């Protein structure tokens, strides 16, 4: 093969470890510049949690007259109600979710399910029952899980022979959850007919 045939196949260039290191350095600097640029222009401001009008939700749920629909008359100072839902039908269920002033979660779950079913669904299938506690003159069960959730629960008489269960669960300190449970009040439920 002649020299002219070798050049026709493509130009050759000198390879050196210095050139390789230089190319690697340019690539790394380009990546760092891109990351810094993205960090400067990125808008990572946290999305504020929206508060809900839980009073209207409580009134609408109580109008169905299937559950007591437990809720506080007013929230503790600095707390924000973030969710309020009522599922009507043959298995009515009430949910009320709040964030404390320290942005810890506290939720109320109420239905005609057993306490154990509520605990399994909203705390943990492997939740452990603790000692009963007195809250606002009533006996409540306590439950905890390995993830740090704490809950109090009890059964309620709701209109004649009907019973329902309520669970107050969250990541807030135990005292706050118990105090909050003591503020919950329900509406009238007519006797089953």
Task: Give a verbal description of the structure.
The chain is of the alpha+beta class and 193 residues long. It has 2 domains: 3-41; 54-185, Phosphorylase Kinase, domain 1 (2-Layer Sandwich). 30% of the residues lie in helices and 28% in strands. The strands form 2 sheets. Strands 2, 3, 4, 5, 6, 7, 8 and 9 form an 8-stranded antiparallel beta sheet that branches. The chain has a two-stranded antiparallel ribbon with strand order 1-10. It is elongated, with a radius of gyration of 30 Å. The chain starts with a helix and ends in an 8-residue tail after the last strand. The mean pLDDT is 87.
Q: What is the end-to-end distance? A: 105 Å
Rg over alpha carbons: 30 Å
What best-fitting shape do the alpha-carbon axes yield? elongated
Number of domains: 2
What is the overall pLDDT average?
87
Relative strand content = 25-35%
Name the CATH class of the largest domain: Alpha Beta
Helix content: 25-40%
Number of E-state strands: 10
Low-confidence stretches: none
Give the topology string: H per helix, E per strand: HHHEEEEHEEEEEHE
CATH topology of the largest domain: Phosphorylase Kinase, domain 1
């Amino acid at each position: 093969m002649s020299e002219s045939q070798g050049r026709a196949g493509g130009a050759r260039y000198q390879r050196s470890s210095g050139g390789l290191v230089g190319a690697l350095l340019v690539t790394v600097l380009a990546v760092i510049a891109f990351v810094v640029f993205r960090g400067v222009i990125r808008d990572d401001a946290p999305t504020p949690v929206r508060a809900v009008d839980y009073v209207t939700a409580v009134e609408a749920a109580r109008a169905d007259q299937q559950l007591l629909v437990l809720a506080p008359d007013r929230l503790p100072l600095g707390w924000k109600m973030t969710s309020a839902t009522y599922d009507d039908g043959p298995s009515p269920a009430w949910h009320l979710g709040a964030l404390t002033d320290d942005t810890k979660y506290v939720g109320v779950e109420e239905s005609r399910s057993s306490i154990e079913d509520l605990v399994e669904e909203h705390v943990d299938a492997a939740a452990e029952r603790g000692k009963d506690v007195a809250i606002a003159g009533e006996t409540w069960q306590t439950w905890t899980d390995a993830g740090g959730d704490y809950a109090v629960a009890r059964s309620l008489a709701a209109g004649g022979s009907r019973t329902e269960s309520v669970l107050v669960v969250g990541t807030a300190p135990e005292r706050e959850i118990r105090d909050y449970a003591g503020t919950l009040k329900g509406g009238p439920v007519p006797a089953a007919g």
